Structure formats: C-alpha cells, structure tokens
C-alpha cells in the first residue's frame, strides 16, 4: 500500500532494553526483538513508497555500555542480515547501505555488512541505511579532517555535505524516535536540520506498521516552511 508521505524517514531505535525489562527479560532479548522489528518496518516502509529509510542501530557512544551488551550488538548484523533476510529484501528491491565508522567493528561484523551491500547493490527500490557505529559529531569531524587533508581553500555547505557519510542520501524529511525520549542523540544533525520530528511512547520492539503509518499521517498534516512563511501567514 503506497501512501503519500516523506521521501526520507530516519528512525532512532530506542527502548529495546526497557521493553525487555518490562517483560521480565534480559536486555539482549530486547535487542533481539528489536532486530526483528527492523525487517518488519523496512518491508512496511518499502510498501508504503518511502524511498529512503535510515535506522540508527549503534552509536559511537554505545561503546560505553557493558562489554557483554556491546558484543551482542556487534553480532546483531549476523542475525539480521542472513541469507533469508537478504532474499526478502531482494524480493522487495531494497538496497542496503551503511553509514558510520568501520575501523572499530569486529572483522566478521564488517564482512556481513559489506556482503549485504554487495548482494543488494543492483536493487532499484528503497534504500535501507544502517547507521552502525555512527555519530553525527564524529561524522562532521571526519569530514572536516578530510577537507583539510585535501587542501580545499574555501568550504561551503555543498563541499561539507559531499564529505559526509550521507553524501548520496537526501536530507531527512521525517525523524521518528520511539521509546518516549525526546532528543536526537547525535543522529544526523546536519541532515535533519529541517526534518519534522515525531516522538512515540511505544518502545521500538512494539513499534509496528500502524505506528509507522500514524507517524506518516502526522507528517502529512504539517506545514513545512523551511524557514519561510506561507501566503496565508
């Protein structure tokens, strides 16, 4: 079911651990259910006609969690991007993309990510971007250092944008955060400067297709001015 809505939707995955605790489960069980929800929402978003979906899976600050939880999260791509899941994405013509650092990832995690990119690179449908070991500040610092190394004399918005991980993605139209918190948490700060923000009290593992549709309907009812005013104002 295609619906009128945003071109680029970004989602901060939040509430996995709290969902698990509320169910009397281990935090890792919440991450497991959250990973399954990524596929559910990605397929739903594709059917709704969304062209770009960016998922905030692991931030540069998440390394500060317990070793056990970090190791579990680092192994998540191996469960999320198995052959069956890749086949499902291919059937929907979803192309997988990654933004973030690759230098700290375990070799197997990086291999799985790169393999999924290769297996879906020719797909023409929605671009599903995993922000994994991503942080907006690190992204901008890295971009600035690369610009300095290239000895570019004058830097403007276009040059900076072309040095970000997201250089091939459009600006974010709708940024969704489940889990009840109301902050951006170092996610796509440059790219979300005119994004509409939508906060949900639902934890990510229970954020389903109906929740996504509600966010899009809310977006469609907003008046996006981009710093200007409408004729009626």
From TrEMBL:
Belongs to the UPP synthase family. Keywords: Magnesium, Metal-binding, Transferase. InterPro entries: UPP_synth-like, UPP_synth-like_sf. The gene is uppS. One of its GO terms (biological process) is polyprenol biosynthetic process. Transmembrane segments: none annotated. Homodimer. CDD domains: Cis_IPPS. Substrate binds at residues 15-19, 27, 31, 59-61, 63, 65, 177, 183-185. The keyword Cell membrane does not apply. The active site is at residues 14, 62. Its cofactor is Mg(2+). Mg(2+) binds at residues 14, 196. This is Isoprenyl transferase. Its EC number is 2.5.1.-. It comes from the Bacteria. Catalyzes the condensation of isopentenyl diphosphate (IPP) with allylic pyrophosphates generating different type of terpenoids. Binds 2 magnesium ions per subunit. The keyword Magnesium applies. GO terms for molecular function: ditrans,polycis-polyprenyl diphosphate synthase [(2E,6E)-farnesyl diphosphate specific] activity; magnesium ion binding. SUPFAM superfamilies: Undecaprenyl diphosphate synthase. It comes from Spiroplasma syrphidicola EA-1. Pfam families: Prenyltransf.
């Amino acid at each position: 079911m295609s619906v009128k809505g945003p071109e680029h939707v970004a989602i901060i995955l939040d509430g996995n651990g709290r969902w698990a605790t509320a169910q009397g489960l281990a935090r890792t069980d919440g991450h497991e259910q959250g990973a399954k929800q990524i596929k559910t929402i990605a397929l739903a978003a594709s059917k709704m006609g969304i062209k770009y979906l960016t998922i905030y899976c692991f931030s540069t600050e998440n390394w500060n969690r317990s070793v056990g939880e970090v190791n579990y999260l680092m192994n998540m791509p191996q469960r999320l991007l198995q052959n069956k899941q890749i086949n499902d994405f291919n059937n929907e013509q979803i192309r997988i993309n990654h933004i973030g650092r690759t230098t700290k990832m375990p070799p197997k995690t990086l291999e799985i990510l790169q393999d999924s990119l290769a297996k879906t690179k020719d797909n023409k449908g929605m671009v599903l971007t995993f922000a994994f070991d991503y942080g907006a500040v690190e992204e901008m610092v890295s971009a600035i250092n690369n610009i300095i190394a290239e000895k570019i004399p004058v830097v403007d918005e276009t040059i900076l944008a072309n040095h970000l991980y997201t250089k091939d993605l459009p600006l974010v139209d709708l940024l969704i955060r489940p889990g009840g918190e109301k902050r951006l948490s170092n996610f796509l700060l440059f790219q979300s400067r005119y994004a509409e923000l939508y906060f949900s009290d639902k934890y990510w593992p229970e954020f389903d297709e109906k929740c996504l549709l509600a966010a899009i309907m809310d977006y469609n009812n907003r008046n996006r001015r981009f710093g200007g005013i409408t004729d009626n104002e």
